[in-house]
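Summary for the steering committee. One of the milestones for this cycle was to obtain a three-dimensional model of the protein with N-acetyl-L-norvaline bound, which we needed before selecting residues for the alanine scan. The sequence and ligand used are listed below.
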Amino acid sequence: MNRFTSVHDLINGPGLTQALQDARNVVAHPWNHEALGKHRTLGLLFMNPSLRTRMSTQKAANLLGMDTIVLNAGADSWTLETQDGVVMDGGTTEHIKEAAAVMGRYCDILGIRTFAGLTDREKDYNETILESFVRYAGVPVVSLESATRHPLQSFADLITIEEHKATARPKVVLTWAPHPKPLPQAVANSFAEWMLQAEVDLVIANPEGYDLSSDFVKGATVTHDQDAALDGAHFVYAKNWSSYEQYGQILSKDRAWTVTEDKMALTNNAKFMHCLPVRRNMIVSDGVLDGPASIVLDEAAHRVTAAQVVLMHMLKGLA
Ligand code: AN0
Ligand code: CP
């Protein structure tokens, strides 16, 4: 596997069934592949903040015997130009072509976090920055959340659902919830894309004006009625995203969409999931988050599992 930027890289690589088996194996025997990453270096470039991705990916690399170098773009490094053919007489210091290629000389695998800018939909959905790294780095690239997807998160979400499910084909509800700031669609897009490949029935609930790109949700049931969606649900996955249609805009902060105990009572004893960081009493009530239905910490813990499986397959592919 020489890139991991969407579910398709896993499907076209080891396959989803094998990857889930690998996940169970690395949980049971975390140090079994400690020799695989010996003398190998993982570079992690963060253009945006992170707690989980930063720590879990380093931990996964450590379990595989790898060394890690972390760089925070802008703060620790030069500001990057991403456009081709420009006269660099403005604020940016170094072109992504050189930066990516240089990092590729120091590292065997590169991870990149680059959020959507939320102003230019075409630029975001073309994945300009992530694809530049893939093109110029010369080494395998792992997405640590890009403009349109967060595949390590979605893989961890799937592992968590597999671990907690009590029925063969659970009903999974992805519900929009309010947030004071405009957030990317990446986590929601990616979750939908993965769930549509999994043994689950996916229902997406969001207010009008918040429909996700059809490229990600084709095949899912989409409704604007949250209560109807929650009926009989086994898993409730809450997430805020800004509008795709009116790109990057906040159209609603309606707290009637907050996931509360009353909302959870509509479900079939569902588990509550969120990728974190989460805004308490905006996205989800204290009672739900602190209660027995919440599996957000298992989800966060499986970020290590997901990263370990992905890095393991990449390391196996290195010469
Ligand atoms: C980010 C997002 O919604 O994409 C990262 C989530 C993992 N969240 C925030 O910026 C709060
Ligand atoms: N869920 C997630 O990716 O968290 P961080 O932004 O803290 O890495």
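Key point for the committee: The chain has two domains: 3-149+303-318, 153-299.
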